[in-house]
Amino acid sequence: MAPLFIGSAVALVTPFDKDGKINYSLFKKLIEFQIANNTDAVVICGTTGEGSTLTVDERLSLFQTAVDTVRGRVPVICGTGSNSTSFSVEFAKKAEKYDVDAHLIVTPYYNKTSQKGLISHYYTIAEQLQKPVIVYNVPSRTGMNVEPDTYKALAQHENIVAVKEADTNISKLIKSLVLCDGKLDFYVGNDDLISVAMSLGCKGVISVLSNVLPAYTHEMTLAGIDGNSRKCAKMQKNIMSLIECMFLDINPIMVKEIMNQMGVGVGTCRMPLGKCDEKYLEIVKAEIKKLSESNRQPQL
């Protein structure tokens, strides 16, 4: 099976109006902006999209809007995971009615599970869905980690096709790639590791940075995939201060603040995240000034 995408997928923010309701008009514009700037896939209602504070109806509405807006130009990947296996199955089935291209399924959080439980969780979900499953491993948020041997076991299921790896342990990533032997496609979930991950054989990134610099992220990622590791690393070094700025506070607080200061108007995060801490505002202004002076900042 061919990879779902090769390159950079945007972990798209969910824009809200001043009353905290979804701004669907701007949501469509953000998708068009991404596609116009070479983004290879869009991820809806992931961590950056604040899926955890959206209602089921809101998420399904965003899935439908995304699919209708994209019109098959790039894959639409939807966050349908949960810490309840049965809920994930039922929710993902509803999402499939809108013809989404794939599911991003986070590992169980809070209740967590064993590695054996992880395999059962993902197998149970994948067996009941028509669209492929991406395993989303983000231990800093869930309190659990997918081990390399578990990835090897998951790779045996034909409907589990990829991983969004947001663990920063490079040794573990290398071991996972070796054990899976090409049977799972790996996408890095950390923008600061793009150059390293691409040099190791990952197929791309699911990126927060792409919300602000989609064309740049796409070019940087493809350079690494195509074997031009020096160019990829140089591009990453040039943008590291912006990447670091995006994670000064809990994601997606900072990327939304950056976009707001750039005039995009995506609103603040829903509670419990809320607004950006005032101590970071000057740092954001400085980063936007750098972008403007470098002519890297595209206009929405």
Chart the SSEs and their pairings.
Layout: E1 7-11, H1 24-36, E2 41-44, H2 56-70, E3 76-79, H3 85-96, E4 102-106, H4 115-127, E5 133-137, H5 139-142, H6 148-154, E6 160-165, H7 170-180, E7 185-188, H8 194-200, E8 204-207, H9 214-225, H10 229-246, H11 253-261, H12 281-294
Parallel strand pairs: 1-2, 1-8, 2-3, 3-4, 4-5, 5-6, 6-7, 7-8
Helix pairs in contact: 1-2, 3-4, 6-7, 8-9, 8-10, 9-10, 11-12
Main attributes of the structure:
12 helices; alpha/beta; 300 residues; 45% helix; single chain; eight-stranded parallel barrel
Architecture overview:
Helix 7 links the parallel strand 6 and strand 7. Helix content is 45%, strand content 12%. An eight-stranded parallel β-barrel has the order 1-2-3-4-5-6-7-8, surrounded by six helices. By secondary structure, the chain is of the alpha/beta class.
